[in-house]
Amino acid sequence: MTGPARRTVIAIVGGGFTGAAVAANLARNVASDGATIIVFEPRARLGAGLAYDTDNPAHRINVPAARMSLIPDDPDDFLNWMAAKGEPRGDPEALAVDGNLYPRRAVFGRYVCEFVAPFLKSGKVEHRRERVAHIDRHGDRWRLSSSAGTELLADIVVIATTHPAPCAPRRLDQALDGHPRYVADSTVAGSLACIRADDRVLVVGNGLTAADVIASLGLADHRGPVVALSRRGLRSRGHAGVPQEPFGDFTSDPVRTALELLKRVRRAVQDAADIGTSWHGVFDALRSQGGQIWRALPVAERRRLVRHLRPFWDVHRFRVAPQIDGTILHGLEQGRLRILGASVEEVWRRGHVIAVDIRHRHTGHRERLLFDACVVTTGPAHTGILSSQAWLADLASQGWLRLDDVGLGLACDEASRAIGVNGTAEPSLIVAGPLARGSFGELMGLPQVNDQAIFVAEEIAGMLLKPERSGRRVASVAKIQQRPVTTVRGAASR
């Protein structure tokens, strides 16, 4: 006689948006009925993560709420959830002049949390409020050790952690180490509280995080001058004032070089202008076709695109909410905010005064600026991913993980299976979310991350249907039965 079959254990490391979405979509798939799904996340809630676990009223979603549904076949699910909850309450500015809702990010965090809550209640998903410390191979399984001293043997591990924190420029970091108003990581809650109302503030970086910082200072009644400095001086753009359809076809005749893609985008922007529409529709088309565009480019051209065109893509693709854009424009009009394209040549301190020598990008003119505070808002330190957490370093040292070929995240194949140093994909080690961006291309906006999380859940479900988990699918994902998801309007299925 044989005992009952051992349950397959799936460990998801990281319980922010990506991890919660993978867990919920896998739990509602009948293929996972004989499996145990465990999410390691030290925060009290699943689904919020760094992006949505914030009480800062200046932090808003930067995509209209109408495009933030977790259920692709029910695009109004988030809107209906807000209506049922009386949201956005106490936030009259959530409704923008273009008629779209841009609620505070904490509201969306609650929505994601409630999406996964039924599976936590039923026991289908287990939330361990522990931080993974180490992972190593144990036979044909993975042994996870937590900071609380517990161990778990898992058959499948999903890497759903976020990007590492920003890396401050070395010269700046060395000169300002220990300064009472030097904020090296503005994503830490309450990090801006050290800045006084009249302080002269240097913001290093000009992306979405910089926009959050500028808006947060405004809400805190900061009155001092602000300089936002980046190498090119490009800031995240706002949304179109009126709804626009995606404009442009970039996949019927795929481009093979970064230069040809640039030329085609410029032509599309001009064609759009000729019919009275803006660049927004062109970039929306690029976003929706991004995966196909990326796959058609050779690796060398992907690197060239990242090196030369990524800053321009980022400021047009990742737009700020109209409320945030209005704050920035108001600061520029008043002269209280300067946005500069320049490089930092020297930094030193005179007591608590920060002196910065800069060289302007286009004119070469040198200028000395004095500040009382400095906030770093540069992008994630992509090259430091493997050393950012001990368990990632473990997997890298054992040869299971390496950086991708374009420097955006972790190497994985088109099934999201991690590729190790020997070039082989490991079916039981899966990369989910933005860290898979090097293979999937467009994986930073929430709709795309949600789609990839659904895809990962379906891949795992397919593996569960085949005991040896070879990674070769035995059934079309379209044929895998899905449980209905309860929404505020009733049951919905994909």
Folded structure, characterized:
The model is unreliable at about 470-494 (pLDDT under 50). The protein contains 16 helices and 18 strands. The longest helix has 19 residues, at about 445-465. It has about 500 residues and is an alpha/beta fold. α1 runs parallel beside α4, α1 (about 15-25) packs across α16 and α6 crosses α12.
Quick structural summary:
With 494 residues, the chain is α/β, with parallel strands linked by helices.
Blueprint of the fold:
Elements lengths: L7 E6 L3 H11 L7 E6 L8 H4 L24 H9 L19 H18 L2 E4 L3 E7 L2 E6 L4 E4 L1 E4 L10 H7 L5 E2 L17 E4 L3 H12 L6 E5 L27 H17 L4 H10 L1 H7 L2 H10 L1 H8 L4 H13 L2 E14 L2 E8 L5 E6 L1 E4 L8 H4 L1 H8 L19 E3 L5 E7 L5 H4 L5 H19 L20 E3 L2 E3 L2
Parallel strand pairs: 1-2, 1-7, 2-3, 7-16, 8-14, 9-10, 9-14, 10-11
Antiparallel strand pairs: 4-5, 5-6, 11-12, 12-13, 15-16, 17-18
Helix pairs in contact: 1-4, 1-16, 6-12, 7-8
